[in-house]
Write a structure and sequence with these properties.
single chain; five-stranded parallel β-sheet; 6 helices; globular; P-loop_NTPase; Putative kinase; transferase
Amino acid sequence: MKQSGTLYFFCGKMGAGKSIKSKQLALDNHAVLLSEDEWLSYLYPNQIASFEDYLKFSAQLKPLVKNHVQNILSIGTDVVMDFPANTQKLRKWFLDIASEVNASHQLIFLNLNNEQCLRQIAQRRNEQPERAAFDTEAVFIHVTKYFEEPKASEGLNILEFSGKE
């Protein structure tokens, strides 16, 4: 029997660098990269104007993504998910994806402070002007209220980076 692939996913505040790290990890491991931002922009163009819109469309996407990722893992291919695992409930969803197909997993926790994240968000606004409406300090403060640091008690294999690496 072929061994299942490994599921890699990320936890970190807005602006922590999850997308950049996920692209590099996928390249380094010859893994399939799935980006929530890409899927949402293709499937729901110009329909996400608020955090509530994001939550609604993200939830609609999850059953399809779960099935798709499990199929990929089942054939022995690694998957890197650029989807936020920023709450305990979301991390359980990722853990279920992996465990239901006997795949291993790795949570990469980008543990940056608010100042580091806000600096990177400001830089991203300059580099990607199309994101300027969403990449604001107000949005950062709003979404950070929901952020929950991962804990070993969640049963996760956690690899932590503090931003000083």
